[in-house]
Task: inverse folding
């Protein structure tokens, strides 16, 4: 169920914990013992936290463009209601997907924490 009080900013701040305190990138923490370091080939490796942050940013952009198109329609700058409805539907679906992924992640976390040692 989607919490109507959830905002994009709230989701973005909640995902900051995925990176850990004080780290700007997932790889900035202490080195894990026993894992070989790959040679720097110039490729940027994206981690899970980066993928989530990228998607949250895209959802936020869709929400803002939807809001702008609604404001343009209400102020009379635009008369194309089909594009406004399309933008609002796209923003709504992407937000519902984001909240669904968040709920699945929380559920997986809870299941992991309840595993017996």
Result:
């Amino acid at each position: 169920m989607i919490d109507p009080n959830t905002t994009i900013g709230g989701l973005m701040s909640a995902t900051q914990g995925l990176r850990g305190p004080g780290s700007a990138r997932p790889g900035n923490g202490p080195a894990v013992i026993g894992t070989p370091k790959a040679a720097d080939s110039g490729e940027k490796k994206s981690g899970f936290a980066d993928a989530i942050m990228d998607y949250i940013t895209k959802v936020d952009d869709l929400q803002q463009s939807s809001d702008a198109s609604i404001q343009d329609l209400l102020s009379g700058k635009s008369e194309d209601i089909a594009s406004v409805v399309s933008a609002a539907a796209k923003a709504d679906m992407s937000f519902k997907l984001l909240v669904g992924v968040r709920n699945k992640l929380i559920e997986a976390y809870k299941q992991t924490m309840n595993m017996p040692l």
Q: What stands out?
A: Residues 48-117 form one domain. Residues 19 and 26 are 5 Å apart (CA to CA).
